[in-house]
Amino acid sequence: MSWVASSMWSLGSVAAEDFESMADLRAEALRESLERLGRFDPVRVRERLRSAFEPAHMRHILINGERVGYLTLIPHAGSGSLRLHHLYIRPAHQGQGLGAWALEWVKAQGRASGQDITLGALRGSDANRFYLRHGFRLVEEQEFDLEYRWSPAFDPRLAEIAP
Q1: CB-facing half-sphere around the CA of 144: CA atoms within 13 A
Q2: Which residues have CB under 8 Å from 35's CB, separation 6+?
Q3: pTM score, whole prediction
């Protein structure tokens, strides 16, 4: 049950018993950005994951079978969109194209269903540049987070193949 784009990278299912290791990974991935804002709290990092832990909508990001990240893509009730609730990759594996590969899978889900993708990123995080580079548009600024939206209707890849 995995989506494979190369012999090295794949997506795998998440089970309830994966929570602890995923919470540790989340804390590792968020630590630097949260510390910059003076908001790193390992207990809160775990609590926030617990409140949105839905294994049926989550995928491990794997390199040669090793868990190095995860994502959560949830149907956003009533809005006709999908919510990318988590996309975390261990810092040691960032900057290698793995996040872009995982985000392309997310966008493929949006294209296939004709749904927009929404997400929030921590203000001041490097993730903001990443999402902007990958076609997401800033739609709202909040105290600690920035909200983004990507739409298959505005996907430049689709425009390139249109007659």
Answers
A1: 8
A2: none
A3: 0.85
Alpha-carbon distance of 104 to 24, in angstroms, equals: 25
Q: What is the DSSP letter of 60?
A: E
pLDDT score, position 112: 94
Residue 2, classed as helix, strand or coil, is: coil
Say which DSSP state 155 is in: -
Supply 37's token pair: 């804002």
Cα–Cα distance between 89 and 102 in angstroms, integer?
10
Check if the beta carbon of residue 90 is closer than 8 Å to that of residue 29: yes
Whether 111 and 158 have beta carbons less than 8 Å apart is answered as yes
CB 150 within 8 A of CB 116: yes
Q: How far is Cα 62 from Cα 59, in angstroms, rounded to an integer?
A: 9
What local confidence, expressed as pLDDT, does residue 29 receive?
Answer: 87
Low-confidence stretches of the chain (pLDDT beneath 50):
1-4, 159-163
